[in-house]
Design a protein that fits this description.
It is built from eight helices and 14 strands. By secondary structure, the protein is of the alpha+beta class. The protein has two domains: about 90 residues, Pseudouridine synthase; about 130 residues, Pseudouridine synthase (2-Layer Sandwich). The longest helix is centred in the first third of the chain and has 12 residues.
């Protein structure tokens, strides 16, 4: 089926693990046979959860949607640091995990709330001289990065089962959860990396109206169109 016109709006997707954000974009382009599809905020392959896709004229509000706050739930693993700061990387250091009580864990998380500066990881999509840092990292290069001002509005420690800690964080745009985890691990004196991550919210959008990757793969294009939020609907949801 070929669509007579490119649909305009937003499609909320619950991204599966093992896919890049671009993989999801390519899948929707193929299923709907349209070219004008973008995404708002990269999710790493290990991450799952909310990926906002913009279609047609919806791409014009992509920057606006990307600038909104995001909420994540995740699991960190103490005692190991990796070169990507998550489980996808190579282990570069191992340290014994001390006996930690709830107070010590909360004190470490408290160090990273409100405004603070975060050093973007080398394995990231930030460009230097027009080249993404992750491409330089693959070449074994490390370059100077500018720290970024970020903000944590709220966090919760949901489970402590050493060496794992489950957490939820509500943060500003441009925030690296794996760097957050890395820095908390350093604060606790044993290092850490991100084991699991799920984006649960972005601005006013959550997973309640998101379609799964399997649904996209198996849906007829005409059925997929019914899942697209129109631009007026997006505007109302954002309270704009």
């Amino acid at each position: 089926m070929t669509l007579s016109a490119t649909p305009d709006g937003v499609l909320l997707v619950d991204k599966a693990a093992g896919m890049t954000s671009h993989d999801v974009v390519a899948l929707v382009r193929r299923q709907l046979q349209i070219k004008k599809v973008g995404h708002c905020g990269t999710l790493d392959p290990i991450a799952t959860g909310l990926l906002i896709l913009t279609l047609g004229r919806g791409t014009k509000i992509q920057d606006l949607l990307m600038s909104e706050d995001k909420e994540y739930s995740g699991t960190l693993l103490l005692g190991q640091t990796t070169d990507t700061q998550d489980r996808a990387g190579q282990v570069i250091s191992e340290r014994p995990v001390p006996a930690l009580d709830e107070k010590q864990v909360h004190l470490a998380f408290d160090k990273f709330r409100g405004d603070f500066y975060q050093m973007p990881p080398m394995v990231s999509a930030i460009k230097q001289g027009g080249v993404p840092l992750y491409k330089l990292a693959r070449q074994g290069k490390t370059v100077e990065r500018e720290p970024r001002l970020v903000h944590v509005y709220h966090y919760s420690v949901d489970r402590i089962a050493s060496p794992e800690i489950d957490f939820t964080v509500l943060c500003s745009k441009g925030f690296y959860v794996r760097t957050y985890v890395h820095d908390i691990g350093e604060e606790l004196g044993c290092g850490a990396h991100l084991k699991e991550l799920r984006r649960t919210r972005s601005g006013r959008f959550d997973l309640s109206r998101a379609v799964s990757v399997d649904e996209i793969k198996n849906a007829q294009p005409v059925d997929l169109l019914t899942k697209i939020l129109t631009l007026p609907e997006v505007s109302r949801m954002r309270g704009a």
